[in-house]
Design a protein that fits this description.
This protein is mainly alpha-helical and 269 residues long. The chain has helices spanning 2-20, 25-35, 40-64, 70-90, 96-115, 150-167, 171-182, 187-211, 217-238, 243-267. The protein has one domain (2-267). Helix content is 74%, strand content 0%. The chain is globular and about 45 Å long. It starts with a helix and ends with a helix.
Length: 269
């Protein structure tokens, strides 16, 4: 029965996570830690294993609708991995409490911008290139306006990866608003590309946790099955709802993440 409950819960997690471009760990880790596994480490490792399947299922769903920007993802992926290593490395030398509060406050601001539902102008507009020709406009996505700059995309990847490695948060929480606000990428395109990028890093993290004995395969399997179904439903729905709804939905999740980070930072020694 507990496996069935996990699978059903994972359908909901996959649905919401695939719509807003996050892995789903912000939902799965508390669920596992509170009701199923003895330690947070096991909850994180098992969650990461399921996130791999969320990334795969969501990427396939969005790719069929020609929403994933693989070129942008190819630039973001290596820099995000470098940033994740850098963030993990910095945890040895920098106290996380004060930085968590500061970063949480920054996320509160970004959440406020997202909750307005308005599409902002890119603050990195000076870095971007010429307008994209009509043939490069992706079907199902509002015209992104201009091509991204590899330099700006690399900076976004470093920032998102470092935040993920340092604070232990999902890369999508940073990457989606960074692509949308800093690069001026359409919100749906940002969501789809974020899910594509997080797959390899989640796979590396889950394998490392498996080696350390922090993955419960008996729980990861029903989570993966449920999240695959939920992700397909989420990608189908996300391409059919107004962009303003997606921005506000992401803003609500970002608000939760920001408050949680501030509280953890204040409680840190």
């Amino acid at each position: 029965m507990e496996y069935l409950v996990l699978a059903v819960a994972a359908v909901g997690v996959g649905f919401v996570a695939s719509m807003i471009g996050v892995g789903g760990g912000i939902f799965m880790v508390p669920l596992l830690a509170f009701f199923y596994v003895p330690t947070t480490q096991v909850a994180v490792g098992t969650s990461l294993a399921a996130i791999v399947f969320n990334s795969l299922s969501s990427t396939l769903g969005y790719a069929k609708r020609r929403v994933v920007d693989f070129r942008l993802g190819a630039v973001l992926l290596p820099t995000a991995l470098v940033g994740a290593w850098l963030g993990a490395f910095l945890t040895r030398y920098i106290s996380s409490g004060g930085l968590a509060v500061a970063f949480g406050v920054l996320l509160l601001y970004v959440a406020g911008v997202m909750l307005t539902g308005k599409e902002p102008k890119s603050v990195a507009e000076w870095l971007r290139r010429r307008p994209s020709p009509p043939s490069e406009t992706q079907a199902g996505v509002e015209n992104p306006g201009e091509r991204f700059s590899p330099l700006a995309a690399g900076i976004v990847g470093i920032i998102a990866g470092t935040a993920s490695g340092f604070f232990g948060i999902g890369g999508g929480v940073v990457m989606v608003p960074a692509m949308n606000l800093l690069l001026g990428v359409d919100i749906l395109r940002s969501v789809a590309t974020s899910l594509f990028v997080m797959g390899p890093s989640a796979l590396v993290g889950s394998l490392q946790h498996y080696v350390q004995g922090n993955v419960r395969l008996d729980y990861a399997l029903p989570l993966a099955l449920g999240i695959i179904v939920g992700a397909q439903l989420g990608t189908y729905t996300a391409t059919r709802v107004p962009r303003v709804f997606l921005r506000r939905l992401f803003g609500a999740v970002l608000l939760y993440s920001a408050v949680n980070m501030i509280l953890k930072g204040l409680a840190a020694p």
